[in-house]
Predict the structure.
Amino acid sequence: MTVKTMQSADVKELLEKVAGFNTSGGDERVKKIVHRVMHDIFQIVEDFDVTPEEFWSAVYYVSELGANGETALLAPGLGMDRYLDIRLDAEDEQAGLAGGTPRTIEGPLYVAGAPISEGFARMDDGSAKDAEVILIKGRVTDDQGAPLADAVVDIWHANTKGAYSFFDKSQSEYHLRRRIKTDANGCYAAQSIMPSGYGCPPDGSTQKLLNQLGRHGQRPAHIHYFVSKPGFKHLTTQINIAGDEYTFDDFAFATREELVVEAKPVQHSDTAAQHGLTGPITEVEFNVTLVATDKAELQERHARRRALETTE
Ligand code: MBD
Ligand code: FE
């Protein structure tokens, strides 16, 4: 009993008025995009014979998603962040700027303005007594392998419960968030604790939709990175710890083969010892290659609303 009305003059005229085609004010790009979006939504209603009940439940779903603060959580779950990365990779390829450490998604939980230090930082506040102590370490080089001193390595990760400071108010300020400048050899190191994977709030809007898709909302244990230095392409990436149940089954599609890193328990770590940490520790090594560019706009992270971004 599906009715077809999309080709009618009424609908065509309606869409044009909706998008403001008959007025001179507004923004041409916004008009064109809204016209396409509304056309495609109308088309979906027609093709799937969407009932008013279904339509209004979708409207209220979107309201609830926003009220829960989960819009930027559903986005990666629906592959949006990954898709934008696929486009950026293709653009880099076209511009001859491919290569270096692969990018992967930022996610919704970055907080700008973390404490900055030279060469080394301790990221945890010592409150998690049973946590596995890790040493995150690596070297930042250019694509010829030359060390890059004074690159800023901005790292953030979850605690043992998969929760991020700032969003989880039970953690101290900037817990597990640090910026470290590489030393003269391009090296950075951080003492921290092994993060757990992240799970979408089980009663939240994102998980509600994922349930309808028969999907889980889990991410493997991972550590986020921004790496930047003037003269080089800003890198947004993350490492995924090998051996996690979700390493290759991430609801946010952020895992890339080159970004899977093994956590290696060692009896002694030379790097750790340099920073006064003797005894057994788990090493997580991640070396980064940056690609040179003279384009200023590629040297900074893209604009996006982020917690405390305005304080920098
Ligand atoms: C995260 O920690 C994350 O990195 C992403 C992409 C989505 C949700 C939580
Ligand atoms: Fe994360």
In short: The domain at 74-298 is CATH 2.60.130.10 (Protocatechuate 3,4-Dioxygenase, subunit A). The mean pLDDT is 97. The two ends are 58 Å apart (CA to CA).
